[in-house]
Every structure is written in C-alpha cells, then in structure tokens.
Amino acid sequence: xxxxxxxxxxxxxxxxxxxxxxxxxxxxxxxxxxxxxxxxxxxxxxxxxxxxxxxxxxxxxxxxxxxxxxxxxxxxxxxxxxxxxxxxxxxxxxxxxxxxxxxxxxxxxxxxxxxxxxxxxxxxxxxxxxxxxxxxxxxxxxxxxxxxxxxxxxxxxxxxxxxxxxxxxxxxxxxxxxxxxxxxxxxxxxxxxxxxxxxxxxxxxxxxxxxxxxxxxxxxxxxxxxxxxxxxxxxxxxxxxxxxxxxxxxxxxxxxxxxxxxxxxxxxxxxxxxxxxxxxxxxxxxxxxxxxxxxxxxxxxxxxxxxxxxxxxxxxxxxxxxxxxxxxxxxxxxxxxxxx
Amino acid sequence: xxxxxxxxxxxxxxxxxxxxxxxxxxxxxxxxxxxxxxxxxxxxxxxxxxxxxxxxxxxxxxxxxxxxxxxxxxxxxxxxxxxxxxxxxxxxxxxxxxxxxxxxxxxxxxxxxxxxxxxxxxxxxxxxxxxxxxxxxxxxxxxxxxxxxxxxxxxxxxxxxxxxxxxxxxxxxxxxxxxxxxxxxxxxxxxxxxxxxxxxxxxxxxxxxxxxxxxxxxxxxxxxxxxxxxxxxxxxxxxxxxxxxxxxxxxxxxxxxxxxxxxxxxxxxxxxxxxxxxxxxxxxxxxxxxxxxxxxxxxxxxxxxxxxxxxxxxxxxxxxxxxxxxxxxxxxxxxxxxxx
DNA sequence: TTGTAGGCGTTATCAC
DNA sequence: GTGATAACGCCTACAA
Lengths: 340, 340
Description:
homodimer; alpha/beta; Rossmann fold; 3 domains; six-stranded parallel sheet; 14% strand; DNA-binding
C-alpha cells in the first residue's frame, strides 16, 4: 500500500534533526530556524508528501483540532443548515467535525459525548441537551469548552445561540388574532427541552396578553418533535369542543403532522383550520399549503455557535455570551381568517 | 477543571503494573490475566471513572475507531438519511463519524479527505467523488478502506452501494409514455458525477427504446444538483418549440427548481406540464403538487455502505462488492396525461 | 540556530 | 500470570 512519511523521513532528507524539521514545519516556530534550513525542510516535506500525524500531535499537544457536534436527528431538516454553518465556520481554522445523532435519548447522548471526549475533542456544540439531563452536568464539570445551539440550559452557564422563542410565538398569536381567530389550539413540543418549554410558555403568555384564554383542552403535548406526534396531537385537538379555528405548533415537524391529521380527517387548511409552524425549515414554503411559520437564520445560528466555541477554545477568558437571534414571521398559505 | 485518569492511576490503585491493567481492561487480552487481578483492575477503573485515551491508543494501534464521511451538502435532503444510516450501523461497533461537506468542489474534497487521513480514520465513505477526480486516485493509492455510496467509480474498483439509475429512469419514461407523453424534456445533472451521467444515459436509452427521439433541444444540463439550476434549466426547456409536455429531472432538487420555474412562468403542474424527479427525498410527498419520483431506501443505502466498510476494515480479503438497490416509481400528483 | 532528551498514554514483545 | 521496556510520531524545554 503506502508507507507513511514521518517527520524523521523529512528531517533525514533535509539533513537536519527531527526537532529542527518540526520547528521549520510549524509556522509558529519557523522564525526560530535559519531561513535556508527552513526552505530545505519545507521542500523535503513537499517532495515526500509529508503530512503531520494529527494523532501523535494531539497526544503531545492535547489539542485534536476536532470538535464534536451533537444533534437530535439529522433527518429533521432544521439541523442540516445548522451543522453546515458550524462546519463552514470551523473549517478555515483547521477543525474537523465529529457528528452524533442522539434521538434525544439520554443514554445515547451520554455515550456519544463520552466517545467524543475519549477522542480528545477540543470542544462540543450541543443542540440536543435535555433541560436537566446529566449531560449538561457532565459537560460543565468536564471543563471541556461547550456551546449550546438552539437550546438553553437551566442550571448551568454555557455560551449559547438561540432564537427568541417567546417573541416568535407572540408574533404567531398576533397574526392569528389579527385574522380574527379566538379559539387557538397549541401543539406543544416536549417540555424537557428548552425550545419546547419556552415556546409553550410564550404561548400561554401571549394568549393571556391578547385577552384570550389558553384553555388546557386546546393544548396537547407532543412527546417528540416529530411528524407522527404532530399528527396524533392534532387528532386530539380536532376532537375538542368548541373546535379550534387555528392551531399553532411547537415546530414545523409538528405542523406537518397537523397537515397529515387534517388530511386524514378531510379537513382543509386554511379553509377549515389555520396552521402555523415554527422554524421555517427548508422546503416548508413548498408544502401544500405553504406553511406560515416563524423563521430565523439556521445557517447563521450554526456559524455563530461555532464562533462562540472558537472563542471558548481560545480560552481568552471571554465572559459567557448568550446570543439571541431575532425571529420573524413568514406568512404563507396555511393561515386565513376563520370560516364562520 | 478535571484531572484525566490514566492507565497508570488505575494500575497503581489496583496494585499492578500498567501493562497488566491494560491487559485486564481489554476484553481481547483479559484471558491472559488472573481472574482475581482482573476484577481488582476493573473495579479500580470503575471507581476512578477511567476512560481509555483513544488518541494514545490510536497512536499505538493505528486504529482510531473513527470513519470519515464525505458528502456534497448536508442540506440536500437526500443525504441526512444516508448519513444517519451510516452512523447507526457503525455506532454499535464503537465507531464515530467525521463529517465533511464538499460542495463537489475538488479542492475542498481533497482538503477534507486529507484532514481525515491525518486524523488516522480507519475508513471513509464517499458519496461525493467526481467520476474522474484525483480524490479517487488518492483514495485508491492510499490503501485506506473506502466505500462509495450513491456513486460509482469509473476507473477504480471500490466497494459501493447505489441505485440502479438506468432502471429508475426507464420507469420514469415508461410512466410518462403510458400517460401519453411524447415530447419529454430532460434536466440532466452534472455529467462528471456518476448519478448525473448514468441517469442521462438511461434517459437516452429509454427514450430510444420507447421509439421516441431524445431531441438535444429538449435536454438541458445543470451545473449542479440544485434548485437554482433546476429553475434555470426548466426556463430553457420552456422556450423549446414544439414545447415539452413533460419534464424528467435528474433528481428531486432539480425537479423542485422546475416547480419554481413553472410558477414563475405561470404554468401549472401537472395540467400544463408533468414533472418527475429522482430520489424521493423526504417531504417531496408534501410538495405542491406532490412529486412523482423514483424512490429507493436512503437510510438503508447508508447502512449498507457502512456494512461494506466494516467488511473492508476487517480486511478479511472479501472480494469487492458492488451493490445495487432496486428503485421503484412513486406516482403522485405531478404527472398527468398531456393537455392536448 | 540547532541538537538532545524526555514524555504524551497506550499496547506489544520480551523476559521473568 | 505479571512486570519491565520500548515504541507509536510528535513537540518542547533545555543545553550546546
């Protein structure tokens, strides 16, 4: 196959000691070595096709130039742009991304986090942490640089980037009430995840602020941010009396589930019932009907999280930053004035 | 912060030599050590919360329990299920996944592949290789276990999993001709990628087999598998005379682009023009109109690729396997009989 | 400016 | 069955 070229090989060819070769090859220490010598080393390295062994370097320097990214499920269209934003911000600095899907399963989260730590990652971006899971405790205690993306922690202080969920929901309720809706149902996401909780709280607050009752009969809790759960919850809502004229969903996946339930029940959106989502996932503008939803810049959220992580890893004692991205409402075809 | 527990710490606490502790901790070599001693070591490790340092181990053993996955762009909904399938198949065996988005850019491909090799990955899954790019040459020469997913190599022999693209296109043409279409346009994907090329070839072959002419005026080549390119190509097709009554697209992204171009032009799908995609990406069943397309099991494709890679990494001299998954046509609302 | 030496945490190969 | 030793490839005081 192929014989790996090591620093010794380069040094030998350049006629210098490996230590000198190391210094010449490393931009940081290059000034320490004679220009001419450095040139010889560099060209020897080039000719041999030398690539430093990142593992050996990592063992020595305690830096792996690798970061871990934990997400619930890549198949949720919300996450690909976030991951992409992370990678794009990190790649120019030489980092590479380890990815792990957790399914919001505590054990799996734990396992993946440990595997990443074992591999000496320089930092982690979590979009996955349960509000009070042991993962956050472990992360905090480990001293590993950790940044939260699209999530907030209750009890620990991590840098984070997220959306102003309350504000987003407020926009949703504002839009629906303007259209004339009064009986608004809510499909809430899991309450042990910060996005689920804060949007739910935002719903309650906004409804009350609008002088409407957040009737518990018109609130259903999904066990996961999934299409299937959205469908189930919507079915329940359809049975409530008097019926809702609009449904707000904790995220777009749940909203798509509502579409499915409405189809099943032979109800039309928005003629019979309006539906609003949250996230503005890719392609929801092309659903039938196009989904009215709360948008925020996903890619940028990832990029910002990466930026925070870089700060953190540089360890310049920056204070812990908590960033909020502004949401905005995108009105499309899934909302209309109530029928009556 | 936290003091990392090393093998020496465990050994010391168990009152044995580090080498013995190592043997006791490793299932493979445990039989070599006294049961009682092993027990002591294990419990010492447990009490201290010992986790072996994967980097050090990797330096020594030349295995990193890490595999690299290169894809064009995670934001193309085709890839998340594939990546997920890969991870799920690999995780039980202790592997972790490094991911890289290449945008089909040769330099970026190269860079990411090298970074992964530097980190001593045990293998790579490529869904991204240009047909004749230097990446494949480098991969072949490196001796690193490499598997192709959703791609085929022209000049090298790699294990691979892909769809039978010719067959898929044949189904598309069969469906359209049955509906009565004769003037069928084609939005071809990039020809330097195997999926683009084989589907294009399949189109030509199928058209001829159906006794139709594959008129060059009704074939447009996209420079990328993107919505934007699909839109552009469809615009061109709309200008051809006599006009097509149906458009087949090289993949779903291009088909979505066709939707956009039709919207722009005020043409209706399927009333004015039928559109067919390829891939059955998630959510295309919920587009407006639901997209008729060629489906295949994405998740399973990833899982199979991972399986092939595991074989390869085990190095049991298996012959090179080339796997094809059967496609099937999913007829939805975007196709209908031609207007006239 | 360059060479020497030691060690990062493991595991493999010896001896005992 | 266990301990000693060396080495994986690199970096970095320190000495020259």
